[in-house]
């Protein structure tokens, strides 16, 4: 059950698509809920973020164990470097996003819970309904900035990743996209 030049393992394919699709949804929902002040989405967003962090951690461990898949074909040096950079940006952003989100929520006094199962209690402000008492306001603010920056980095890296996948499929016709769909290429 390991990756090869002609076929990726079911685990690699499943983790790639599960993390990728979930992160696209999470970034989209994150932008929507902050832009339109949809506060009811916050607990769902935070719960899914904490759950997907476990899957992201498994994906990172799997990738370290498996190493990077061998390229399906040969490419120019700059293409190989860009590909490595984009993959590292995506992996880093997928790790940083949930960690910074949990830090922002926890340190901001909002607590940590997965669909109501509380891991860190919120610290409501008794003097202001709906407001929280931050455990560490500056650190929560830094986590918020990190969360936003990581989201923007992820968006740009995703566009580059998508562009690369389409280039592989339509221009290079090298089977890379088929391999990412779990198919064998020859």
Describe the fold and architecture.
With about 190 residues, this protein is mainly alpha-helical. It has one domain (about 10-180): Fumarate Reductase Cytochrome B subunit. It is about 65% helix and about 5% strand. The protein is built from five helices and two strands; from the N terminus they run H-H-H-E-E-H-H. The chain has helices spanning about 10-35, 40-65, 75-105, 135-170, 175-180, and strands spanning about 110-115, 115-120. Strands 1-2 form a two-stranded antiparallel ribbon. Helix 1 (about 10-35) packs antiparallel against helix 2, helix 2 (about 40-65) packs across helix 3 (about 75-105) and helix 3 (about 75-105) packs antiparallel against helix 4. The longest helix has about 35 residues, at about 135-170. The two termini are about 20 Å apart. About 15% of the residues are buried.
């Amino acid at each position: 059950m390991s990756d090869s030049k002609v076929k990726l393992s079911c685990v690699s394919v499943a983790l790639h698509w599960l993390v990728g699709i979930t992160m696209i949804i999470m970034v989209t929902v994150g932008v929507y809920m902050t832009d339109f002040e949809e506060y009811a989405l916050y607990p769902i967003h935070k719960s899914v973020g904490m759950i997907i962090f476990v899957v992201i951690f498994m994906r990172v461990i799997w990738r370290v164990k498996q190493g990077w898949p061998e390229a399906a074909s040969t490419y120019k040096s700059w293409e190989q470097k860009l590909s490595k950079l984009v993959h590292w940006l995506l992996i880093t952003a997928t790790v940083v996003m949930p960690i910074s989100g949990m830090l922002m929520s926890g340190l901001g006094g909002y607590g940590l819970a997965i669909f109501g199962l509380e891991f860190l209690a919120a610290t409501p402000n008794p003097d202001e309904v709906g407001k929280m008492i931050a455990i560490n306001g500056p650190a929560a603010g830094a986590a918020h900035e990190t969360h936003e920056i990581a989201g923007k980095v992820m968006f740009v890296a995703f566009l580059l990743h998508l562009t690369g996948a389409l280039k592989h499929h339509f221009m290079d016709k090298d089977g890379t996209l088929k391999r990412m769909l779990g198919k064998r290429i020859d």
